[in-house]
Amino acid sequence: MKRKIGVLLTLFVVFIFSAACSSEEETDQSTEASYAQGMKKEPYTQEEFLLGTYTRIRVFDEDKEDVLQPAFDRIKELEDKITINQSGSEIDEINENAGEKPVKVSKDIYDLLKQARDYSEKSDGGFNLMVGAITQLWRIGFDDARKPSQDEIDEALKHVDYNDIVFDDDKQTVYLEDEDAIIDLGAIAKGYIADEAVAVLKEHDVKSAIVDLGGNIYVVGHSNRGENEDWTVGIQDPNDERGSVLGSIKESDKTIVTSGIYERYLEVDGESYHHLFDAETGYPYDNDIASATVITDKSIDGDGLTTVIFDKGVKDGLKYIEDNTPEGTSAVFVTKEDKVYMTEDIEDSFELDEDSGYSLGDRSELQ
Fold this sequence. Notes:
By secondary structure, the chain is an alpha+beta fold. The chain has helices at 24-28, 68-82, 90-96, 107-122, 132-138, 150-156, 189-203, 299-324, and strands spanning 13-15, 39-50, 53-61, 103-104, 165-168, 173-176, 208-212, 216-221, 231-236, 245-251, 254-260, 265-268, 271-274, 289-296, 330-335, 339-342, 351-352, 359-360. It has a 9-stranded mixed beta sheet, with helices on one face. A 4-stranded antiparallel beta sheet has the order 1-9-10-17, with no helix packed on it. The protein has a 3-stranded antiparallel beta sheet with strand order 4-6-5, covered by helices on one side. Helix 2 runs antiparallel to helix 7 (189-203) and helix 7 (189-203) crosses helix 8. The radius of gyration is 21 Å and the shape is globular.
């Protein structure tokens, strides 16, 4: 790697607003007239520590400050239902009753689990909602994180079959047939919650906003600069401090989701183990990817897809996005060798910062 990691990164996508591209003098001379009708220069903003990260919503519509609290209320409601190892969590209740009885859950959780199982099936386990037996063994990101023994890993791998979850649509119940199985939605939950927060904003007729759930970003509508102006979105340099970008792309009404191997990690005997696990081996994915960004219409899809393409590596990950996802879904990869690759649809619109220290990779050279 070109630099030593100095901080633990939790946010891999940052914004470069149009105003930030101007000099300080030019910014000071800006007037409200340079912004779209009904839009504010400085947004209404609310920030709270939720979902294990700093969560921020910015709304640029005039007279829409009151929408911030309902959006945060929705985030908190879903966090309480989804987070494992938390009293009152519906997912915890399902896990605690594994092998014993079905558990009736809310429509939110029922729908989310069905989507998670669907992703598991479509990706042949590249994303696996039952990876909890592995993640709870390693506990990366928690104070009691450790590297388990191979015997422990081998035993845990017996309990990650996503076919062991049973749904009853009439009763809205969920049952884990394997008593040692554990649902862990950490790889998809923030995406689902981001989409729900955006839904609240749109229900209140918000036309321009940014929802930031630490790695899951959603640019709602158009930039506050104008109805035909996209947001300029910077892709975080995974080897540098937060706010340092390697390139940018313009988007509107899209979600940008990034996962990277330095988001959370454990160091044991000089070796680093990141938090993105392969449910086939019981170890973190070991390939050429440092970070992967997916740009798509729904944040839950971005979440699921970043996990799927981490499983596949750069070459097959690019091909998977191009061949197996809806039009308008794009991806950017950063490798451990400081190369940047992207899907063909954004090759002309992605701009690599010349001073980033990265270079564009040649896909024909991928193994």
